[in-house]
Design brief:
8 helices; single chain; 147 residues; globular; mainly alpha
Length: 147
């Protein structure tokens, strides 16, 4: 993590836009990984949901998504709080993108057909930290909930 911060301040200005885009992707992937791990068991359904969501929303191929998820998993292991991720979301995401991210988190949480209280708590906390309205938090939850 310290190496990433060092790169952020020493990269040439031309790479700043590319780096910001990579950080946006990493923050989204890391938050999805956090949700998948919140119930202390990362199911195959949750992993498949993360891959599908990242492929479709970020327009990445399977190999790029696997590399992103691997980096996100390592970053989550090294992180001390959600702040690193939510700060990037607040700095670089529009309100609609924040809603889409929280909706994706709900889809990962419901991928195994059950919602654990720790998954819900994590999504609620992230929603608060990224200033998502409660009504949109609920709207995303209801849209992702299996019938």
């Amino acid at each position: 993590m310290i190496e990433k911060l060092r790169k952020l301040f020493t990269e040439p200005a031309g790479n700043a836009e590319q780096s910001a885009d990579e950080n946006r992707r990493l923050a989204a992937a890391a938050l999805l990984v956090e949700v998948a791990r919140a119930d202390f068991q990362q199911d195959a359904e949750e992993e498949a949901a993360m891959r599908e969501l990242l492929c479709s929303s970020l327009s990445l191929d399977r190999a790029s998504v696997d590399a992103l998820l691997s980096e996100a998993s390592y970053t989550v292991d090294e992180a001390t709080s959600l702040y690193d991720f939510t700060r990037l979301v607040n700095d670089h995401y529009s309100y609609d993108e924040k809603f889409d991210l929280v909706s994706a988190m709900w889809q990962v949480a419901y991928a195994d057909k059950s919602l654990n209280k720790y998954e819900e708590h994590l999504i609620r906390r992230v929603s608060d930290l990224i200033y998502l309205k409660h009504e949109d938090f609920i709207r995303g939850k209801l849209a992702a909930k299996p019938a």
